[in-house]
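Handoff note, outgoing to incoming analyst
You'll be picking up this chain. Sequence as last confirmed:
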Amino acid sequence: MTWLLIIIIIIIAPHSGDWLLALPIANCGLRLDDEAVRVAVSMRLGLALCAPHSCPCGGQVDAQGVHAMVCKKAPGRIARHQVLNGIIWRSWGSVSIPATKEPPGLVRQDDKRPDGLILIPWKGGKSLAWDVTVVSTLAQSYVNKAAIGAGTVAELTAKQKLRKYSNLTTNLIFQPIAVQNFGAFSSSSSDFISALCHKISSVSGEERETSFFFQRMWHCNDSMQFFCTTFSYQDDPDQ
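Most recent structure output, in case you need it:
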């Protein structure tokens, strides 16, 4: 019952359905093949995705394919992070704001760096650094919190990121981009994306830039979740 409640909460979250509005244009990265669409729809509606089976990592994948979305060995998880970060990085170029990925010299206490940094002031005379995190809403450790409301897991993740990068906030603005894998962003992430897309709209003259942005984000996410699912079907993790 909790699992179904989470699904209902997810599909009514703001912008969670924007992927359905995208024109399937391959050159724009907006085309999903039939199997990827099946996976995306099944996961969002809680339908049976596959027959229960063993993942190459040794974990068990149930009929809803939940383990495939959280498997630490699935290559699609890393690729998803890189592509989503690339979408944000390229968006700065749309408004002629120079930005760099994984900036040297900006490290937190465990020597990890944020995903990117703009090279000119964003607000209050400070530059902005960002870091993307995608969290699986149906992971066992998040199920109870995810059932509270849309975006609760993303909010928790954003707060954790802010604590981890607290040593950077004296000289710049740190913006976590926290997103749940089925359709909800943290409130600060949504506000930041809206502000960025408003700037893009002022340059392009296109009022739908925010919707276009979320379309690209969700199609990337759905493509990579499809790869995570196909990885779980393999008998040999190296094949």
